Amino acid sequence: MKSYLSLIPISAKVRKRQNRMTMLCIIISVLLVTMIFSMADMAIRMEKTRVIKEHGNWHIMLKEPSEQQIEQIAQRTDVMTSSRYDGLNFDLSEDYTINGKSCVIVGGDNAILTEIYDNLTEGRYPTKEDEILLSNRSKELLSLKIGEAITVHTPAGDFGYTISGFGGDVTITTDADIVGAFLNWDSFQSLAKAEGFPHEIGVFLDYPLEDVVGFIENAGQNYKCSGCWKVYCNECETRKLFAKYKKCREVYRRLWKQGRDIRTLTVAS
Length: 269
Known about the structure:
The protein has 269 residues and is an alpha+beta fold.
C-alpha cells in the first residue's frame, strides 16, 4: 500500500507537466486561429475596398426606369443613395471629340461621383448647364485647367462648356487616348435630345420659329433662358408661358397620383 501511495507525487508531477503542455498548445492554437481569421478578414476588406474603388459602391442597376419609378426608389428607406446614369458614344463609333481627341460623354446626378463612386478628385460637380467635368487623364492629355472653356464637337454640332472639375473616369473607358466627359443630368438630356432629333423638329412641336432658328444658328448656346426649350427671343413672355406649363404639369401630376386615368385627364384644345 505504501508503495502505491509513493506513486502519487510522481504522477502529479508528470500530469502537471502534461497540463502545462496542453494549456500551451491550446493558447498557441487559439492565437494561430485568431491570426488566420484576422488575415482573412483583412484580405476581404482590402478586396472590397478595391472593388468599390474600381467598380463603384452599388448593388443594382435598373434599365430605363420611368420617372415615377425613379421617384419611388429615391423615397425608399432601405436605399441609401441612387443616381440616374446614361452615356453617348460608348463604342466610339460616332464623331464626338474634345480638342481633337475622341470622347465618351455621360450624364448623371451628384451621387454617382461622390457616393456611388468616389471619383471627384478636383473641383466640383457640374451644376450649370454649360459646365462639364472631365476625367483625370484628359487633364494631362489636353493640358487643361478648371475654369477653362472647351468645345465639344458632336454629330449635331459644337457645344461650348466650362470645366468645373476633374475626376475618376465614370465613362468606363480604358483607352488612355480617350477623353471622358461628365455632364449633370439635365444638361446631358438636352445634349442627348439634340443628338436624337433634327433641330427642325421644334417647329412640329410648336416651338416659336425664332427660337428654333436661334438654336440652330447658335448650336444650342447663347440662349436667354431655358425651360421647355431654349429661348432666343421674347424672353419675358416665354418665361410666363413656362410658368403656366409648370403649373399645369403639377396639377396633372397631382390628379394622376389621386387615381385619375388618362382619358379623364385628356382635354381637347
